Task: structure prediction
Amino acid sequence: MISIDKILPLKTVSALLVGTSRKTRIVSVSALILAAVAFGAAGVAPMAPDAANLPVRSISETLALPDLAAQISALEQQSQEFIREEKIRPGDTLGALLGRLGVDDGAAASFIKSDSTARAVMQLQAGKRVQVQTDADGSLKWLTASIPDSASGSLKNLVVKRDGDYFKAIQTAADMEKRVEMHSGVIRSSLFAATDTAQLPDNVAKQIVDMFATDLDFASDLQRGDRFNVVYETFYQNGEFVRAGRILAGEFTNAGRTYRSVWFDDPATRDGGGYYSFDGKSLKKAFLKSPLEFSRISSGFSMRMHPISGQWKRHEGVDFAAASGTPIRAAGDGVVDFVGGQNGYGNVVVVKHWSNYSTAYAHMSHFGKNLRKGMKVAQGDVIGYVGTTGWSTGPHLHYEFRINNRPHDPLAVDIPNAQPLAGNERQRFQGVASDMLHRFALLSPADVNPKLASR
Ligand SMILES: [Zn+2]
Result:
């Protein structure tokens, strides 16, 4: 983990107290402390190229916080208005929380209990912060907190405000700060064990799998000693981690071969961009290497069930062993051509792709929700679940790759990639790619000189 240290010495924080108005002083102290905590808690490298040139390795540790309560109470001595901040505790009640915040205001408490917007305060999880301002006798002027926004998966600001003799509650969009973080990991037992050790959020681990799903079958190709580097976006609000965003670049070394991908914005596409190799070729390949969804459950090379997996058999398909219920994904974009039962195949789905390609997925326990003939599917869409229907001796996926309705070995068929970038786009891409390559260079141990795999 590489980080640029931006932690303000606490003396600087105190020094800033001098010469500002009382109210802003308190707010500044909290804001600065929050910022310091945030930078201490995660390795963060700003996007600025200059900053990225500094190969600073930092150690993540929790900072000793100054006694905020003492500082605030010292300031309160001179004030008729009180600003306080408290964290929600496990098992907290609204009364207990307001008590710690110094709010002695029955009307405010009953408003928070009864108002459909304000009530979100009572659903906050332990550890979340609530700030209030009261006057000297404890009556509430305002209360504010960050609350989860289920629609966007991020946060909103909630403000409960006195308005004469009444209260009102408003929600506003939260300003989020975007950061870029870098992590690396080595596979020792499973991908998810490695991403946990590297403290990567689950959605980043899943993106690593998706990025390389046309190059690697994570269920059967992983080896001890494989390694990865990732550069990804994170979003913070008030110094609190909210969520991880997109992987901007990734590097995966499998069995001594290194695969690299970089995200490139392209507003014309459905996803707003896509992953490219560093020479500007799109990695959106025609077909996934394995139609099985890879998850925590299927993670790990030591425990993989492998008696029949990946073998091209006389019976003209590839069998992938997997637990019953494992999601099966469409290997490529196409249209559903058949959904139903078919003798030995049991429950089978056939997807027709462009040209004369089609894929078949047999022995399913059940089909994807609402899947029907004629429906469009995109690469990676779940079309069914592993089962053992039809002529099958145990749960597995029988997968056929057909050209002109005749099965071919999917691992042996060479399908062309999408067109490489050209012109202005190519130039813009090279700027992005060289920045990311520079970051990988900082993350890689000096003795490793990866052999790039050809795509
Ligand atoms: Zn089979």
Notes: The CA atoms of residues 361 and 399 lie 5 Å apart. The domain at 80-174 is CATH 3.10.450.350 (Nuclear Transport Factor 2; Chain: A,). The chain is about 20% helix and 30% strand.
